[in-house]
Amino acid sequence: MKNILIIGAGRSAIALINYLETHAGDNDWRISVADKEIKQLEGQILSSTRVLKFDLFNQEQLDNEVVLSDIVVSLLPASLHPIVAKVCLAKSVSLFTASYESDEIKSMETEIKAKGLLFLNEMGLDPGIDHMSAMQVLDRLKEDGHELKAFESFTGGLVAPESDNNPWHYKFSWNPRNVVVAGQGGTAKFIQEGKYKYIPYNRLFRRTELIEIEDYGKFEGYANRDSLKYIDRYHLENVPTVYRGTLRRTGFCRAWNVFVQLGMTDDSYVMDHLEGMTYRDFVNSFLYYHPSDSVETKLYRAMHIDQDSDIIHRLEWLGIFEDEPIGLKSATPAQVLEKLLTEKWLLQEEDKDMVVMWHKFIYRLDGDSNDTCLTSSLVVEGQNSVNTAMAKTVGLPLAIAVKLYLQGKITQIGVHIPTNKELYEPILKELQSYGIVFNEVITS
Amino acid sequence: MKNILIIGAGRSAIALINYLETHAGDNDWRISVADKEIKQLEGQILSSTRVLKFDLFNQEQLDNEVVLSDIVVSLLPASLHPIVAKVCLAKSVSLFTASYESDEIKSMETEIKAKGLLFLNEMGLDPGIDHMSAMQVLDRLKEDGHELKAFESFTGGLVAPESDNNPWHYKFSWNPRNVVVAGQGGTAKFIQEGKYKYIPYNRLFRRTELIEIEDYGKFEGYANRDSLKYIDRYHLENVPTVYRGTLRRTGFCRAWNVFVQLGMTDDSYVMDHLEGMTYRDFVNSFLYYHPSDSVETKLYRAMHIDQDSDIIHRLEWLGIFEDEPIGLKSATPAQVLEKLLTEKWLLQEEDKDMVVMWHKFIYRLDGDSNDTCLTSSLVVEGQNSVNTAMAKTVGLPLAIAVKLYLQGKITQIGVHIPTNKELYEPILKELQSYGIVFNEVITS
Question: Is residue A36 part of a domain?
Answer without folding.
Answer: yes
